[in-house]
Amino acid sequence: MARILDKAAVQPRRRFNPANSFTIRRSPGRSLLATIRLRIPAVNAQPNRVELVATIGVRGVTGIAQILFRIFRDGIEIFNTQQGIESAGSEQNYAVTFQAIDKNVRPGTHVYTVTAENVTANTRADVVGPISFSGLAVKTGV
Question: What is the CATH number of domain 29-135?
Fold first, then answer.
């Protein structure tokens, strides 16, 4: 059984909308997608884990882009995953969902961010929505 310590969620884009898209920056640049803040109490909060879930709507524009998604806690990378995004044929629009778990986070307020970067030259992928990012901090072993 677990006890909830804190929760946060943002949804900067609620729906798929190619008319309101933006291009994912080419690595080493990054596109910031969403940010949340979670607080871990100083007393009686160990051991704990933070469960993070992100969903990003992406559209392939040219070539087969490899998009590297990263999650940072307080500016330090704690998770990454990569997704290929095609631009021709039947596979052009994607809803990429991934989950990360951050264990035994120290007390205090922590800023979690999710970013995307295109690691493949001469390709393009755009964020077309939706974008959602949520976190749930729980005390484990209760």
Answer: 2.60.120
